[in-house]
Amino acid sequence: MIDKTVATVEDAVAGISDGDTVMIGGFGRAGQPVDLIDALIDQGAQDLTIVNNNAGNGDTGLAALLAQKRVRKIICSFPRQSDSWVFDELYRSGQIELELVPQGNLAERIRAAGAGIGGFYSRTGVGTELAAGKEIRTIDGRDYALEFPIRADFALVSGLEADRWGNVVYRETARNFGPVMATAATTTVVQVDEIVELGALDPEAVVTPGIFTDRIVAVGRRPWLDTDGSFIGGVDIEGRPLADTASTAGTTEETAR
Fold first, then answer.
1. What is the pLDDT of residues 188-201, one digit of tens each?
2. What is the rounded CA–CA span in Å between residue 117 and residue 236?
3. Which of 22, 43, 117, 239 is the most buried (most CB within 10 A)?
4. What Gene3D superfamilies does the annotation carry (predicted)?
5. Which CATH number is correct for 9-103+150-220, 1.10.730.10, 3.30.1380.10, 3.50.50.60, 3.40.1080.10?
6. How far apart are CA 170 and CA 10, in angstroms?
7. Which residue in 48, 52, 56, 53 sits closest to 21, CA to CA?
């Protein structure tokens, strides 16, 4: 019987070792597997290379992992923003290495690893420092830089629901980097709100097939979602109470991610 579920987040991150490359899903806080990151902090692995779109927000999730000085290098496309003070301090003091990758190239380099593609040519970054030292080829009169796949030992991903076979569905923009990362790691670990019975997921809605998933752990329904996955409101993405936002434009879209 195929059953990829594990009982705890501690079991889910077991085996991540010092020096490993770990992909972490999320676009900012949207889709970030915070429960798995917290378990990784408790687990103790260090000298990690982290692949993520961002470099942490505030003091929770990925930022908390960085603050523990457990990350040697981060590969990302958007390291600095108003609440990226943890990364900013580490980088300015020379305590973390950064590989900056344009967002489209980042997604495609991860996808290439999962698809078995040895490399691809991209126009993004050509003529800038991002293309320094890379092979440049002229195709149809335009210059392209050779980019290589990004692979990982582990991928930590956040989904909405999964079955015991490891089929995963996501909620709206929380999907972001999760599906491509799930294909590009030796071991893919997915936290979900709920593990449902076989057959409960619409096959047409499954984004990450179970063949790419190694471990599934249920962490409980997020407090801002109803049982059908619809947005309730009342708290932000970290569970903190919101002010009355019924007439505030954009609030629902931001927090629903």
1. 999 999 999 999 99
2. 39
3. 22
4. Glutaconate Coenzyme A-transferase
5. 3.40.1080.10
6. 22
7. 48
